[in-house]
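--- STAGE predict ---
source: upstream dedup step, 1 unique chain passed
mode: sequence only
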Amino acid sequence: MEQANTASAPTTLNQRFNLAFGLTAAIWIAGLVGHFTPLLEWPALALYVLGSIGVVIWRGKGKGEWAAMYLAGGDLKKSLKWGGIAGGILFLMDVSNTVMWYAKGNPPMMEMQDILVNMNFLYLFPVLVLAEEFLWRGIMFSSMIDRGFNRHLTVFITAMFYVVNHFAVAPVGMQERALMGMMALPIGILGGYIVLRSKNVWGSVLVHMITMLSMVLDLFVIPNLVYQYMH
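--- STAGE serialize ---
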């Protein structure tokens, strides 16, 4: 039995590796095709969320890979500690940056605000955060490390894939996609190193959730504060 498990380990790893990059390719193709149709990038975004969460649940429950994907085990306390610190830093950076945008009379992301607020997608944002972390810092990151990729290269590649993905799945203009990509880069780098050091993805999830909180302030609090201060 032990020999059979050992023999199946490379096969299981290859499956997870292929799933990570195969799903990414499918998302990007769907985004490119959808961009030239009335559906825009919405099918790609749906595939991104449902595919990422679906693959993790399948591999976790069906194959027992929760720890292998860093969703269990590792050093959870260390992961959350550094996730809180990194998230706090990014929180302050995002809020201060948004204040400067509004002070200059240039709201940073009006199209995204319309999607999140007027279309009520803000309530689904935590689900998107989980999907993003599960794919980039979970499935893809763990399979690259297990296959022997350089650790720092793995952090960089998964972070850059995460950045580029915003151009494939965001149904907004290119300027707002670029802004989201810029915000995604530090999340990807910091989250990647947290996962690398702790072998646990939940600190990176915490980073992401804290930045989501800063986005809520960007939408509902900061504009009013800046307006009151300016007038």
